[in-house]
Amino acid sequence: MNTPFRFLLLSSLVATALAADPSPSSSPSATPIAAVAKPTPKVYKRPVFPPIPAADLAAIEAALPAKGTVEPKQPRKALLFYRAEGHVHESIPYGVQALKRIGEKTGAYTPVCSDDMASFDPETLKQFDVIIFINTTGLKFENPIHRKALLDFVASGKGVVGIHAASDNFPNWPEGQALMGGVFHGHPWHAEDLVAIKLDDPAHPINKAFNNQGFRLQEEIYQITGPYSRDKQRELISLDMSKPENLQKTVDKEGKPLLDKNGKGVVVRTDNDFPIAWVKREGNGRVFYSSLGHNREIYYVPQILQHYLDGIQYALGDLAADDVPTALLKVQPTPALAPDAMTAPLDPLKGHPVPQKQAPVASAPVIAAPVTASSGDAKKAGEAALKDLPKYNYGDSTVAVFAVQEAVRVSSPEERAAFEPKLLAVLNDAATTPAAKETILRLLGWMGSDAAVPSLTQLASSPTSPEVADYAIRALSTIPALSAPKADAALEDLLKSVSGTQKTEVIAALGMRQVSASIPQLAALTSEDSEAGKAALNALALIASPESLQAILNAKSGNEAAKNEALIACASTILKSGNASLPDSALTALGKIASESSLISERTAAAKLLLAKEGTPSPELLALLQSEDYRVRQHIAEALVASLPVSSLAKIDWATSPNTQVMVLTEVTAKATPEDLSFFKASLSSSDPQVKSAAIVGIGKCAAPESLELLLPLALGTDYQTRLDAMSALASSKVAGGDEKLIAAYHDSKNAKSSALLLKVMAARQQHEAFGLVLEATGSSNSVIQSAAYGALAVLATRGDLDPVIGLLKSAPPAQSTMLCKAIVKAANSDASPSNAAKKLAAAYGAADASQKENLISIFALIPVPESKIALQGILAGKDVDTRKSVIRALAAARNTNSNDLLPQVAATGATPSERILALKGYIDTIGELDEIKPPAKIAEYRIAWKAAQRDEEKGAIIAAVKKLSGRNAAAAAFLKEITPAVAPRASLGAPPSPSSK
Predict the structure, then answer these.
(1) Which class in CATH covers the domain with range 46-328?
(2) CA atoms of 800 and 833, how far apart (whole Å)
(3) Mean pLDDT of 297-304
(4) Half-sphere exposure of 26 (CA within 13 A, CB side)
(5) Max Cα–Cα distance, the chain, nearest Å
(6) Which among 575, 90, 574 has a CA at the least distance from the CA of 296?
(7) pLDDT at 120 over 80
(8) For residues 795-816, b (16+ Cβ closer than 10 Å) or e, as one string?
(9) Separation CA 147–CA 668 (nearest Å)
(10) In the chain, what are the domain boundaries?
(11) Residues 6+ positions from 853 with CB-CB distance below 8 Å
């Protein structure tokens, strides 16, 4: 009944330390229908943040990465967008400062900071390479041009990054929610909690900053719902639910789910999957999200800022990182769990007022977080701080604020009740500053009783301090219903006396507290075409009772859109509660919206409600299946799948809407079970190639026993796209016993084409138990089977397979040498000792013929260990010039550390001019491509290459490469000035063009 308000505040020091922190919202926004039941939206008012103290700026600066993990492929420009239409995080300026300075210091991107929606005008947006949403909340993106511009932006190959509250946006826009990859649904782990975090993919480049170790961190952790799924994105880090401190926030001592003050489960996820960071593809673009970033101290932690930078460089397309969804990986990464031992945090963060209490324990890594005092000390400190609190102003030291709120947090209910009169005394003191009153009002809104209601009411109706009045109304809206039942009547009385902004605040509060007694007052206001009228409709929707629904239906509102929105929201809540049904008048009104509304979003939402109520597709909903807007069809597809059993979906005639049929098939695929096979099978006969493709994918995903038998003939068919789809489905299908079935099918196969296909499928499934079978098939007399076998060998070879694949060197046909080399390289590099593997290959080289030696040279070049380099040095010292050139070409193609070591030697001292030219070209290319060589070292390498360069072509290539570095590197710029005059004008003809600036 008592839903926390979205406070628009300058500071959240109190809320971030209380278990009922309202940031950013407690209302789930997983569906567009539920999400419309919110307080009346206000015109965006840009918050005024206090200046960041010098000590905090220094802490951010000290934590900045020195440089990017990779060099940008071209100049990059980033939009740092921080508009908050919902809760305003006090850490926003800290996040903006940190991400702005990361771009400036590392040169990874040029930052542009904005909270203006005009940034999403298509012509404005196209100048950027990435959009970084920094603690944005409640962004509605109501302008369809802006919506399309954002989707087109990322689909075209650009990037989107979300920090913390970026998952609490787009309440009425499912495509926006899907773009980010998940929706905020409360935070069982609050800002003051020390949580255990695991690395789901320790080796992932964006996790490199955490050094393969799980950790603990003091931070607010979100529960993510909505479109989130490990089938759709690559999970990077998440809560370690094997640790008791995390579980304590979800279950009680008896292991039963914890309930909130409204009797609802604190946790809605049933899979114990609480993601913190992920990456995902979106069209040709990339998305990176990290929910870390609520506490401002997060921006003082070097590991976190490096994590941000690597994610941003991935989104920009500069950092190569695997983004195959986690659930689709054949081999799941082994997570790096948080340490078992509960330890104190590391040193307190710079700029934080609380002193260190305990030395860090080196054996259990914990990312830096503030240390709090014991509960007894905290209470004493809070009592003492009440003397200083009345003088607190924005920008002052927060020691007194922190001490008072910490005292309340650690107190028992009885102790809080005893502390309340002391807080009220400070609140009612005329000398207390507005900033201090805000602090106390936040506290009272969380733990106050009826004793506080008179003071809150008096401040709420005060015309002399409208800002404090707003905070008082918000406190009345959130004060616990059990301890302060008089707040409801106080708000009803206030509604009769206040006006303007305060009036809309009071109306919203009545709705959020679900004060049924206020329905007549609210109903009388709905006829106003004003902010108060809209607020009254929203409040009635929040009350969500048959009486409030009837009041909405009876409203003579001049704002039809607001009335429709309220009706949809109220009806949705009533249906979900299961305690009441919709009257015929409501169904009639919803049907009218579905068929006549000028807003597609309203028509779609109303049609979904009718579907949920009636259980069969209404004519209005089926008509929307023909919409020209694919997003509308997507909504309807989701609604159909969510509301109807698959057997009912099969009865719908899809002939006139194949695009929607594809969407429905895709939605069913996301949660497919073996029982759904007949639904997918029926769609195989469609003449529409996209429908057929979607059906094939579904057959693979539903993993029915007959799936393999259906897919194998399709993979052998004549249609190219069908073969590709079936191969992909076979590769990913998780049919029980599927691997054994494929091996048995291979042994039973009487057809070379079928046998070859089965070998390819087993390789695509990473089915290593078939390695022996594949090895045997390399000796087949049938060229089709033999070719497939060598291709499978290149995929499956791994640790322990080196000896058998080396044994094929003497018998492999020349046409299969490339695949064999790949298999040997893979087995050698994954060997328990790549050095010993290189020694084995060196022994094989001594006994090899000319063609085998050619292959071994290529293999040596691709195994970057000292033993390989020694072998290649020996070959380079030989007398045969063609063999030496083979080594040079192999090293030039490998572009690894061996290339960087050996090629400059040959470029300087090679026996023939052609060898020196060939080696120098490979060396120049290696310098540019080898990520291990950072910019300062690259300049030293280019100097070596410059000394060896004799021809204008090589000099021109070096100048072009140095130009790419010169914009962000002083040494490169100096070297460029040094060498440019030394080249004749025509030398530049050999240089590739530099990338154009955006």
Answers:
(1) alpha beta
(2) 10
(3) 92
(4) 22
(5) 102
(6) 90
(7) yes
(8) bbbbeebbebbbebbeebeeeb
(9) 26
(10) 46-328, 878-998
(11) 845, 883
Q: Which residues of 136-163 are buried (b: 16+ CB within 10 A; e: fewer)?
A: bbbbbbeeeebbebbbebbeeebbbbbb
Please write the tens of the pLDDT for every residue from 653-711.
Answer: 776 678 778 888 888 888 889 999 999 999 898 888 989 999 999 999 998 999 999 99
* 812-830 confidence digits (pLDDT tens): 999 999 999 999 999 998 8
Give residue 207's pLDDT.
Answer: 93
Residue type, position 53, single letter: P
pLDDT in tens, 891-916: 999 999 999 999 999 999 999 999 99
Residue 366 has which token pair? Answer: 């914990």
968-992: average pLDDT: 65
Angle between helix axes 738-748 and 752-764 (nearest 10 degrees) is 160
Please give the full DSSP string across 376-398, using - where no structure is assigned.
HHHHHHHHHHTTTGGG--TTS--
Sheet bearing 285-290, strands edge to edge = 110-114, 77-81, 130-134, 159-163, 285-290, 275-282, 234-239, 194-199, 215-218
Alpha-helical segments (H) within 73-199 = 92-106, 122-125, 144-155, 174-180
**How does DSSP assign 86-118, residue by residue?**
S---TTHHHHHHHHHHHHHHH-S-EEEEE--GG
Q: Of 22 and 695, which is predicted with more confidence?
A: 695
Q: Are residues 325 and 231 in contact, defined by beta-carbon separation less than 8 angstroms?
A: yes
Q: Is residue 964 classed exposed, middle or buried when 0-12, 13-18 and 19+ CB atoms within 10 A define those classes? A: buried
Amino acid letter, 195: V
At position 170, the amino acid (one-letter code) is F
CA distance linking residue 222 with residue 900, whole number of Å? 46
Average pLDDT score over the chain = 83
The answer for residues whose C-beta is within 8 angstroms of residue 812's C-beta and 6 or more apart is: 778, 790, 820
**Cβ neighbours around 467 below 10 Å, total:** 12
* Residue 36 predicted with pLDDT over 50: no
Tokens matching residue 386: 């009440």
Query: The whole model's pTM is what?
Result: 0.48
